[in-house]
Each structure stands twice: as C-alpha cells, then as structure tokens.
Design a protein that fits this description.
alpha+beta, Pro_4_hyd_alph_FE2OG_OXY, iron, oxidoreductase, metal ion binding, binds 2-oxoglutaric acid, metal-binding, 4-stranded antiparallel sheet, binds fe (ii) ion
Amino acid sequence: MKGNQLGWVAFESSPEVGDAAKRWLGLDGSCDWKTACKKQCKELGINFKTVRHHLARTTEIAQSIGDGGTAFCYGAVHRFQEHDIKHALLLLRPVKLTAANKEKFNDIDEGRSVLTSLADLNMDSVLSVCSPAPYGDLLTESTKLDPTIPREETFPQPVFEHQLLQAVKKHLVHGQAVRLVPYKLNIYGEGDFFKPHKDTPVNPQHFIGTVVVCLPSKFSGGELLVSHGSTCQTFDFAEHSGKPGVYQFAAFYGDCLHEIKPVTEGRRVTLTYHILRTETISEPDANDQKIYWPLDLGQMRAFPLARLPKGGPVPQHLQKALKAQLSALSGIGYPYVGFILQHEYTRSGLVPEGLKGGDKVFFDLLREIGWSLRLLPVLVVEEQRQSEGYQSHTQDVFSFTKQDFEFLNGKEDAEFDHGYKDEIPFIWYGEEGKVLEQDSTLGCYEGNYYEPTREALSTYSLASSLI
Ligand SMILES: O=C(O)CCC(=O)C(=O)O
Ligand SMILES: [Fe+2]
C-alpha cells in the first residue's frame, strides 16, 4: 500500500509477559524485525537495503527530535498572596471508618468537619478528623492518614487552584485543556513513606497526571522522587516546609513512577489533585476575572529539573530531514513506519489531545508535515539475556488487537488473538530505543516457562507506534 499512516499505542509487557506472549504468538527463532522487514520487502517487491537505509536514518532523526523533548514533571515554591490568605481554607471531613479502624480511632467523630487555613495549618484540628489511608499498610507500607476532601463551592479557593493550573498548563501540558480535581490529603508522620507507585486513574479516559501540593507543616526527609525512563527528579520540600504562607508543589504525568522517602521528623502534609483533560478550553468569564488576581508566575521559584529539556519547536532542518526520509519510504512503496511513544497511556486515554510531553511535540510535527496518523495498540516484547558474558537486549513490537486487550483485561470469553500478528519495524524516537541495532537472539531463548496472569498486567499501555 502506498501512502503513509502513523499509528500509536501499545501494551506494557514485563519480560515475563513477553515470554508468554511469544509463546502465544507461536514465535520461533525468526521474529526479529529485520527478518520480518525483509519478508515484507520481498512480498512488496522492494529493495530491503534501501528500506533499511531510510529506516536507519529515520531513527537517527527521530531520536534527535526525542532528545529535545519536553519535561515529564515540574515543581515550584510559591507564596499565598496576602489577599488570598483569608480565603485559603481547607475543609476536611473524615472518611467513613471501617469496623476495624473504628476501634483503633475511636475518638474520631465521623460527623464533624474541620476548617483550617491552607497557609498556616492547624495540625491538631487536621489530625482530629484523620483516619488511616484506605489502602492500608500492605500495599503502601505506609501509615498515611487520609481524610476526604469534599469539593464545596469555595474550597479550596479558586485563586490558589488557578495558580496551580496556570503553572501546570505552562510548564507541563503545554497549553492543553486541563482542569484540576482535588483528590486527597496525605499526612506522613515520622517514619512514614510511600513506596514507588503509579497513581490509579479514577477517570482513565481523561487522567493526565497528578499535582502534589505540600502544605506548610515542618518536617525533614520525605523527598518526593518522580521518574520517567531513566531520569529521576527529586522534589525536596523539607527545606521550605513549615513556613507560614508558603506552599510548594510538584506536577507530573500519570505514567511516572513516584515515591516518598521516609519522613525523619515532623509531619509532611500534602494535598493531591488529579490533572484531567477537558474536551474544550473554557474561557474565564467576567466573574472569574474579578476573583483571579493577576498572576505573576515569574515569582514562583521552580525546582531545578534533573534533565533540563531543550524543549521548544523542532528545528526546521530536522523537520525537513524527517519528511524527506518518510517520503522516500513511501515513494518506494514501503507502507508503514511505527514510532514508539515515550509515555504510557491507558487504552481510553490514548487520543491525540491526551498525548503527553514529547509525544505531543512529535505527533504535532508529523501531523504538520502532512502524514496521516493512526493510534494503534501494540505489544512490546522486551528481553534481556546474558550468556557466557555476552549481554543482549531485544525489543520487538507486534500488532495488538482489541481482542488481545480484552483477553488480558479479563473480559469473559475473550481469547488471545492468534491471527493478525504482523511485525512492523518500530522506531523509538527518544533515548530508549535502538530497534535497528537489535540482534536476533530470540530463537535461542530458553528462559523459565511462565504463564502470566491477567492481574500481572498494568492499567497502562506502553505507548507505541506510528505507521
Ligand atoms: O505525598 C506525596 O508527595 C505524594 C502522594 C502520592 O503519591 C499519592 O497520594 O498517590
Ligand atoms: Fe501517588
């Protein structure tokens, strides 16, 4: 087929799931991309070497574009404005206690709410409505206290949320239409921590990420570590903790693994918000204009980021080069090229408007240079092997169908799709991938025979492919 289409999506597969997937797919020793590509070229009657040359060049260009990608997190220290302080209040109502918790926390009055200043927390009253985190010690191995935050007309004050929203829009989601929804309050005492995790999207279709706001309560330790790929960013809120009127925040994409190191002293109090994609950009109305004080985001002191993205628009010469390579491929009749996205997406969240960070930049570029794009779920099979001092790492990408997804997500009667499993040369455009350099050692794999369970699969899909 002539012409080009770009696709996306994928499915996260741990190496173990990958092994089993290969078995399901009935793959033997001939499943590296070069073999598949050669076969495809033969069928199409086109020259494999030429295709290979253009794909190699496309990979190089795509990776340089990826290197200039955008940040996966942002954070800053800020101060409540004088005139906001009297409005910056937090209303807390205790969560429903379970029978077991009732015994442990019998002095908590479920019917009572507490009002406290966001700018100067009254910890005694906050704690009086707290109950243990619902997910308990087993999962998080933490002892967080977690009251619900009801959403009422005036809480928290729009000015405060508006400042957060502006910062998120400007520094994380690059103007995408998003809103913030208060989620919960976490209180960590001495020794409390939160193991590495990804936040569960309450609304997978619109969930983009999380904002953590650290409220003024003095503590030590408790660093927030956020990672994406091989980059890890630390947000150390301890230094400015406990300063009345000062709040600190960090915002990150929902597929980022994050953790809280143990608090060594004091109490660390955080308010979390979910960043949700909205369908339309809502213009602030006249009333909003009155409430919102002109914001000076420049006053926010940003945390230095671990890997400063070069960001900005993709340079013209790279745009041209990419276009030339893709045109060459389509000119000789090569039908598809797949690009692996850098972020992970939920199945329903993988839509052009919901693309994160560098993925959005890359997608916009491809669209700009006139390629039709398609978001396509794929299965990424990753393998690390070590034999006789020789290490190899292979990554293969397979088409992935709705039927596969339903099976892996436990839909009744769904079966793994044994048909349609084309292999496509996919290209990683960021730091991750080197598809063109992979070796074909899959055939000799003799690892443990492993039957994956549906439960082993995560909510997120490892984003993938363009075609
Ligand atoms: O307290 C924090 O800094 C983050 C809390 C968190 O990750 C969560 O509640 O899921
Ligand atoms: Fe979290």
